Amino acid sequence: MTKGWHISLGALLAVTLSSQVAHAADPRYPDWPCAQAKVPEISLAAVWAGPPLDDAASKWKDDQKVSALVARLSARRLPLEDAQKEITEFLSTAAADKATRGKLLFAGLFDSLNAQRNSVMNGLERVMRKQREAAEKIRADTLALQALQDATPPDQTKVDALGNQLTWETRIFEDRRRVVKFVCEVPTAIDQRLFALSRTIQQELD
């Protein structure tokens, strides 16, 4: 009985925690789990004050050197300082094509990092929906466990089985909650990376 009661309390704690993330800060985005406000897209004007991009947005993929560099610089495992150095080196050898190459490079980074950002944000919302479903399951199983514990006499085999199931469900719930808290920082990190790389490109074009 004692073991089952502790399991029940643990499950109820998880449900209490779920209620803290179940209510979105912004009703427009009910599945957004982060304390940070959801900004669906990065504004071009917020990160680019350089020359007009013209058709760079549609042509950057046609330049093999640019597209390869975009893929490398977009990877967050590459330290920001190293990425900035690569931009400087790339544009310093562009000579007369520097402005064109700079615009193509920015357009590629804007597309790629925005796509990364959207993927992360969509993933966060999928996890939030799973957390709601998990919270409902934990809540239902907690009530079922309490009913089994209150039976006279209790079926200890069923109590133990459901108690173990609740322990597992609660652990998964808590693991997801910790992951979400960490991943919520990623969109902001992507924003900051795009802004920093954009600034480096613009400095090289000035």
- Helicity level, as a percent range? over 70%
Helix count equals 8
The overall pLDDT, averaged over residues, is: 87
Strand content: under 5%
**Count of discrete structural domains:** 1
Which regions are unreliable across 5 or more consecutive residues at pLDDT < 50? none
Distance between the termini: 74 Å
Biggest sheet features:
none
The tally of beta strands, per DSSP, is 0
* Helix/strand order: HHHHHHHH
Shape: elongated
Q: Provide the structure class.
A: mainly alpha
What integer value in Å does the Rg equal?
A: 25 Å
Key attributes of the depicted protein:
single chain, mainly alpha, elongated
Describe the protein in words.
This protein has 206 residues and is mainly α. The chain has one domain. The chain is built from eight helices and no strands.
Quick synopsis:
The protein is mainly α and 206 residues long.
Write the layout of secondary structure elements.
Blueprint: H1 2-22, H2 44-47, H3 56-59, H4 64-74, H5 80-92, H6 98-150, H7 156-183, H8 186-205
